[in-house]
Design goal:
44% of the residues lie in helices and 15% in strands. It is α/β, with parallel strands linked by helices and 252 residues long. Bound molecules: 1,3-dihydroxyacetonephosphate. 1,3-dihydroxyacetonephosphate (13P) is lined by residues 9, 94, 166, 171-172, 211-214, 232-236.
Length: 252
């Protein structure tokens, strides 16, 4: 059985003080919740303070990106060991990074390998845009992204990776994908591809989240799908009560 994992991607929101306030509130509200892994992904500037606010609570911390190189003249970048000093997780290949900052499958694969080398759990984002969706290209596209992301990764490391299936057209639009369709895409295109590469046992061990306009009023329909192992949440992760509802929806 895969433990569900619900992660909040705060994107470019929350000052240090706001991050601490939200974290404290989540800590209180989630104290009795078990059976689901919770991860907070604040901006780099708030990682240290969020870690301190998490304290001994069973809440994971992730960065929203990182560089694959160990160190060097890369102005503005943060290395895997810097992230690993504070975090257990790192979001990689988010569509906003691919779209606005020129990230590629090959670069994100280097990041995924670097993350595993530092014992970080990568949350690797994949997903098609609206044109690809309308043209019926989703399965092939997403399968290809999964293949690239896992290039050169051992089966042992693969089972420690989390995938987030985020159709680009569903992100921040209020227009979530159909839960049954998501279940099908994850089962066939994502887990099917993983099974081709690593075999069925490893494929069954890898957690796959859905992301894209997940909200308290639609989360239940995603949570009941057998292939969906949690959510990667943007907007609805910025308010404590809303995020708590999403986490609770995935409790077994
Ligand atoms: P929204 O939940 O705001 O649609 O964002 C999803 C997302 O991009 C999470 O990484």
């Amino acid at each position: 059985m895969r433990t569900p994992i619900v992660a909040g991607n705060w994107k470019m929101h929350k000052t240090v003080a706001q991050a601490v306030e939200l974290t404290r509130s989540l800590r209180r509200a989630l104290v009795d919740v078990s059976g689901v892994e919770v991860v907070l992904c604040p901006p780099f500037t708030a990682l240290a303070a969020t870690r301190e606010a998490i304290g001994p609570a069973k809440i994971g911390l992730g960065s929203q990106d990182m560089h694959f190189e160990e160190q060097g003249a890369f102005t503005g970048e943060v290395s895997p060991s810097m992230v690993a000093e504070l975090c257990q997780f790192v979001i990689l290949g988010h569509s906003e990074r691919r779209q606005y900052f020129g990230e590629t499958d090959a670069g994100d694969n280097k990041k995924a390998r670097a993350a595993r080398a530092h014992n970080l759990t990568p949350i690797i984002c994949v997903g098609e845009n609206l044109d690809q969706n309308r043209a019926g290209e989703t399965a092939a596209w997403v399968g290809g992204q999964v293949r690239s992301a896992f290039e050169g990764i051992s089966p042992e490391d693969a089972s420690r990776v989390v995938i987030a299936y985020e159709p680009i057209w569903a992100i921040g639009t209020g227009l979530a994908a159909e839960p049954a369709e998501v279940n099908q895409i994850i089962g066939v295109s994502i887990r099917g591809t993983l099974s081709d590469i690593f075999g069925e046992t490893v494929a069954q061990s890898i957690r796959v989240q859905y992301g894209g306009s997940v909200k308290p009023d639609n989360v239940a329909a995603f949570a009941i799908q057998p292939e969906i192992d949690g959510a990667l949440v943007g907007g609805a992760s910025l308010k404590s009560d809303r995020f708590v509802e999403l986490v609770k929806a995935f409790t077994p």
